[in-house]
């Protein structure tokens, strides 16, 4: 076991972790933050995407102990004072989710893409989200939602 | 009805989804998010061999491992099963239906077949211990391909069955051969539609909680909570009355969760044995082996026509992979396409033969479209081939053969209620601007451009809205195709809706509220929609086959009519008028000619609950249940076109435009319809260009994770141009199914486009998925 201190959605947690525990299971099973989903186990689908120090990371590619001292934002930490984040709101407005399983990861990947200034047009958005798979929407409305939140046309 | 009289209606509007609120905030209730005190975790030990005798299973090391609660072999649990895992669709009288138990105890018949289970205090400990189970296998020869499986001397999947032929099913019109022989032109083509792995984003999962009195609560990531409940009685002997099944938020299904799987029975059996909650969550690689696959069909399709292009006969012969066992409806999947090999065309002579074949592979079953993409693909590809053979324009060939008058009795025996196939095609051509595309195609061909342009068409219809119970009975399906709905006014006027359908992304909570709000004239926010819990929704046949709206939605409408009838009787009684003197509009009953004498339906609801002044003999309360059995299937249709650019040096194909015009009847929520169409098309595009579940010669699955099976991302998928034409479905809401249309239409449109791009070089066919390698090879073959 190793002692780890990480900040998740603004709250500091001190945990004793097995070195093999993936960050995604630390979030889900230790901290009860089940909004971050596990979709593939091979870092292919992006359902487990979270922000680590404001950058999008697939939480199944990172060990919990590697998050020591880092700041993590999960989908539960995105809305402020009950108000949806603009990307969440755009997903609702544009019908960019159906079953909703990929949504937390997709939203956080989009937040990161927009904040990095890389959501410049439709092609850039499509390329920027290629690490996040959705099986329901055909991406059409996801791209529209991200473009809308980024203030670009698609 | 109220809908038509109101100027502002919810039905027909893109009402934003109420489902989003929790899903967007990460508070969804997916099964893996649920854990109960004392939960133990299940891990399944699976055969690494496609075919092997199980000589011995040693569980000693696993049982001694840290955190292990119990471990069992297939033989240990053999006494737990009251019966085989059921297959509900014995399509012929002499079908071979070998037994199928949650764990194999003698022979493993596909890679991934379960042979033992371990239960431990955590997910990780269960997995650790599963690796300590020692199974001694004696590997046997295995076969993965349907044609080879039927050869003499092929390894048998079920030794005691004596053959790999599961069934032969035939449908043929009288004097079919005479018509075929009389044709001017006959075109026959062979097609292989590979396996597709459904890949719902949420892996399967189950949590079983034993109760104190032999009762059991099961949370499952399922499309079919009601079906799951009664199969538990068949396999485990737990009566339906002791079984509560909850489908919480379910992260997609696409047919793969229209099943009750081994792990669901195992979780319940072990919860019963151990007296603790048992949980299992599928790992993706596990799902690739142990969740059903779709397709895997070899077709030979023949079209016969006169010289002027009138198609006179269609003949389909198909070898359909069952996999190693029959899951819930495995043998019936081809039959879901059996009646539509004539598509939207008036073809008077009809012959279909399906041969179901066992192979040492993961069982097949329903994957989006189920049988209809298979039929539509071979028909639409062959229509192009026939057009080329006849020297007739492929669009005009289609138009010339369209069914024109509705209702239309097809040669295959079913009747299409409504449609206007030319309207969809005309609108498609308007959006497409075909002359401009063809001009550019000519230019590129003239200058021998590296990137060639192609356009492909697919005009389709399909039968969905499963299904009329009498027809299901006639084709040997075990249960019915009806669905139910209850509408219940609460005392203070809010409305509770209980539906027998079980959504997993389709937005029933929103759409059902739209229907009820309009029908009863109440605010949409006053309508709550409950589903997916057998304790709440007693009667239901669940969600698959684009049935929820056309069956469950119509049940809902009928329940609304019953509520209005009862309310009207109460109002007539209290206002002392005859029921015939009342009209109902905008949520209020008004005496005809006396607009000041009226009563709102919420007031009626309170009166019904107070029950101070009801007609003699009337039961208190304002609620009604309706069970609706559809008299016919639903018949959506449309016209799709794909425009592709093919790099002739690399074989890379890009879709530059995709245009879809669909007739899905009257829209309830256009936003949700568009979403279904986008997602459906994407799965068809994926089949055409990217996805293939591949086995090697020895029946080893080669595509075992998302790293080797290409589920497309946003970067591979084009934006879509969609529009709708509209003919009313034959039901009170005028609706038709939409969940599968895109998947049915898209694959042939894309492959026809790829072939069109290369047709000037002499390419006539490209095997799907049209990967760069396959396209490049197709080009080399005609160049040498």
Notes on the protein architecture:
The complex is a heterodimer of chains A (154) and B (784). Helices cover 31% and strands 16% of the residues of chain A. Chain A contains five helices and five strands, in the order E-E-H-E-E-E-H-H-H-H. In chain A, helix 2 packs across helix 5 (140-150). The radius of gyration of chain A is 15 Å and the shape is elongated. Chain A folds into two domains: 2-75, Beta-grasp domain (Ubiquitin-like (UB roll)); 86-150, DNA polymerase, domain 1 (Orthogonal Bundle), CATH 1.10.150. Chain A is α+β, with helices and mostly antiparallel strands and 154 residues long. Chain A has a five-stranded mixed sheet with strand order 2-1-5-3-4, sandwiched between helices. With 784 residues, chain B is of the alpha+beta class. Chain B folds into three domains: 2-27 and 482-628, 2-Layer Sandwich (Aldehyde Oxidoreductase, domain 4); 34-140 and 201-252 and 257-290, Aldehyde oxidase/xanthine dehydrogenase, a/b hammerhead (Aldehyde Oxidoreductase, domain 3), CATH 3.90.1170.50; 372-464 and 635-783, Aldehyde oxidase/xanthine dehydrogenase, molybdopterin binding domain (Aldehyde Oxidoreductase, domain 4). In chain B, the strands form seven sheets. Chain B has a seven-stranded mixed sheet with strand order 3-5-1-12-9-10-11, sandwiched between helices. Chain B has a five-stranded mixed sheet with strand order 7-15-14-13-8. A four-stranded mixed sheet of chain B has the order 18-26-27-28, with helices on both faces. In chain B, helix 11 (372-390) runs parallel beside helix 20 (741-758), helix 16 (508-520) packs parallel to helix 17 and helix 17 (548-575) crosses helix 18. The radius of gyration of chain B is 28 Å and the shape is globular. The N and C termini of chain B lie far apart (67 Å). The chains are: A alpha+beta (154), B alpha+beta (784).
């Amino acid at each position: 076991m190793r002692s780890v201190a990480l900040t998740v959605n603004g709250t500091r947690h001190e945990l004793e972790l097995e070195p093999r525990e993936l960050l995604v299971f630390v979030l889900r099973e230790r901290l009860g933050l089940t909004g971050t989903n596990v979709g593939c186990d091979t870092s292919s689908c992006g359902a487990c995407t979270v922000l680590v120090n404001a950058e999008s990371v697939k939480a199944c590619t990172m060990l919990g102990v590697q998050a020591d001292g880092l700041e993590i934002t999960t989908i539960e930490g995105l809305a402020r004072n009950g108000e949806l984040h603009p990307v969440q709101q755009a997903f609702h407005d544009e019908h960019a989710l159906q079953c909703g399983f990929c949504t937390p990861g997709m939203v956080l990947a989009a937040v990161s893409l927009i904040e990095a200034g890389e959501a410049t047009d439709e092609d850039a958005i499509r390329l920027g989200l290629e690490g996040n798979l959705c099986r329901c929407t055909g991406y059409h409305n996801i791209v529209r939602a991200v473009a809308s939140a980024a203030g670009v046309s698609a | 009805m109220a809908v038509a009289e109101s100027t502002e209606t919810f039905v027909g509007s893109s009402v934003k989804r109420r489902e989003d609120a929790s899903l967007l905030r990460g508070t969804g209730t997916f099964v893996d998010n649920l854990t109960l005190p004392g939960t133990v975790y299940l891990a399944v030990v699976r055969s690494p061999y496609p075919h092997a005798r199980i000589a011995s299973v040693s569980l000693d090391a696993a049982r001694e491992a840290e955190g292990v609660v119990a471990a069992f072999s297939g033989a240990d649990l053999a006494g737990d099963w009251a019966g085989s895992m059921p297959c509900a669709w014995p399509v012929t009288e002499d079908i071979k239906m070998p037994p199928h138990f949650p764990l194999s105890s003698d022979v493993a018949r596909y890679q991934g077949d379960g042979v033992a289970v371990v239960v431990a205090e955590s997910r990780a400990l269960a997995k650790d211990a599963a690796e300590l189970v020692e199974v001694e296998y004696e590997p046997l020869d295995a076969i993965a391909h349907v044609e080879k499986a039927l050869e003499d001397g092929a390894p048998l999947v079920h030794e005691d069955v004596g053959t790999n032929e599961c069934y032969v099913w035939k449908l043929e019109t009288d004097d079919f051969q005479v018509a075929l022989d009389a044709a001017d032109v006959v075109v026959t083509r062979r097609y292989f539609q590979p396996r597709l792995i459904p890949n719902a984003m949420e892996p399967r999962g189950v949590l079983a909680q034993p109760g104190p009195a032999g009762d059991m609560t099961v949370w499952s990531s399922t499309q079919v909570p009601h079906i799951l409940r009664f199969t538990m009685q068949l396999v485990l002997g737990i009566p339906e009355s002791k079984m509560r099944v909850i489908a919480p938020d379910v992260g997609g299904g696409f047919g793969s969760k229209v099943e009750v799987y081994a792990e669901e029975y195992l979780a319940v059996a072990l919860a019963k044995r151990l007296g603790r909650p048992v949980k299992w969550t599928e790992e993706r690689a596990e799902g690739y082996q142990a969740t059903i696959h779709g397709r895997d069909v070899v077709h030979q399709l023949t079209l016969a026509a006169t010289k002027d292009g009138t198609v006179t006969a269609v003949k389909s012969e198909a070898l359909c992979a069952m996999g190693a066992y029959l899951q819930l409806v495995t043998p019936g999947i081809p039959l879901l396409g059996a009646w539509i090999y004539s598509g939207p065309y008036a073809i008077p002579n009809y012959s279909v033969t399906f041969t179901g074949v066992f192979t040492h592979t993961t069982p097949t079953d329903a994957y989006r479209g189920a049988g209809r993409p298979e039929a539509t693909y071979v028909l639409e590809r062959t229509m192009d081939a026939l057009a080329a053979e006849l020297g007739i324009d492929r669009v005009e060939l289609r138009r010339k053969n369209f069914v024109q008058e509705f209702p239309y009795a097809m040669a295959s025996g079913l009747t299409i209620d409504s449609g206007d196939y030319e309207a969809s095609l005309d609108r498609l051509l308007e959006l497409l601007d075909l002359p401009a595309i063809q001009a550019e195609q000519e230019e590129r061909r003239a200058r021998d451009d590296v990137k060639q342009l192609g356009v492909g068409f697919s005009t389709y219809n399909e039968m969905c809205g499963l299904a009329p119970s009498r027809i299901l009975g006639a084709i040997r399906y075990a249960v019915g195709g009806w669905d139910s709905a209850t509408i219940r006014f609460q005392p203070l006027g809010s409305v509770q809706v209980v539906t027998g359908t079980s959504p997993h992304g389709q937005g029933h909570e929103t759409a059902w509220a739209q229907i009820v709000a309009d029908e009863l004239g109440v605010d949409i926010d006053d309508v709550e929609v409950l589903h997916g819990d057998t304790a709440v929704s007693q009667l239901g046949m669940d969600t698959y086959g684009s049935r929820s709206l056309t069956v469950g939605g119509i049940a809902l409408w009928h329940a609304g009519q019953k509520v209005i009838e009862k309310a009207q009787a109460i109002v007539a009684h209290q206002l002392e008028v005859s029921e015939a003197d009342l009209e109902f509009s905008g949520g209020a009953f008004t005496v005809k000619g006396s607009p000041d004498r009226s009563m709102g339906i919420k007031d009626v609801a309170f009166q019904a609950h107070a029950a101070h002044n009801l007609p003699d003999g009337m039961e208190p309360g304002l609620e009604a249940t309706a069970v609706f059995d559809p008299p016919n299937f639903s018949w959506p249709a449309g016209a799709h076109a794909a425009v592709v650019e093919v790099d002739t040096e690399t074989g890379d194909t890009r879709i530059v435009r995709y245009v879809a015009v669909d007739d899905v009847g009257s829209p309830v929520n256009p936003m949700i319809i568009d979403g279904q169409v986008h997602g459906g098309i994407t799965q068809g595009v994926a089949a055409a260009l990217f996805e293939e579940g591949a086995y090697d010669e020895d029946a080893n699955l080669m595509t075992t994770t998302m790293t080797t099976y290409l589920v497309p991302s946003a970067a591979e998928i084009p934006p879509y141009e969609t529009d709708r034409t509209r003919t009313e479905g034959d039901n009170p809401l005028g609706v038709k199914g939409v969940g599968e249309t895109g998947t049915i239409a898209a694959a042939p449109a894309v492959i026809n486009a790829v072939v069109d791009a290369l047709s000037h070089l002499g390419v006539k066919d490209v095997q799907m998925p049209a990967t760069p390698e396959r396209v490049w090879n197709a080009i080399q073959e005609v160049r040498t």
